[in-house]
Structure prediction request, 192 residues.
Amino acid sequence: MEQRNGCISEIEVEFLVERIKQGDKEAFMKIVEGYQQKVFILAYSMVRNREDALDLVQETFMRLYEKIQTYRPKENFTAWLMQIARNLSIDFLRRQKSRKKDNLDVLELGRVDLPSPSDDPAKFNPKEMIHKAVARLPEKQKLVFILHHYDELKYEEIAERLQISVGTVKSLHFKAIQKLRKILAPQLGGGL
Prediction:
């Protein structure tokens, strides 16, 4: 297979895309191998974090697989793919920005009396505790939790975006809430 600068030639791309449209996973993997470095460089240049950029690479190729039927022959494949990566990176940055604005009621804690450590109340930061707890969730639970609470998507929208059933979304969300309560209980007085 002819490659230039790590990318597959446009002629090869047309052939591979047609095979992917027919469900050929090997063709898909060849596209991934040919373009993953380029997608990573773009994502990293936007989000400035290696782990987040790697996640965006994976999400870009998942989106490519979902949207491959919308690719038109003779369209610039590289530009099309990079637009997907760019849009996902922009969405990621927007989510990051909105996370900073969220408030404590994200967990629907109700009327819990949050204890302030008597030795140094200035160090007590509930918002930061929640962010750290969310970061500790298993990946799928974290994703569902973020999409529901930070991006304010409904269960049906999350199910569609992740291509899983609404029941699975509800189950993952329930498990995320349970795990967060378990993580946060010792820090918030044990009453969650």
User: Anything to note?
Assistant: Residues 1-5, 103-122 have pLDDT under 50 and may be disordered. The CA atoms of residues 103 and 127 lie 7 Å apart.
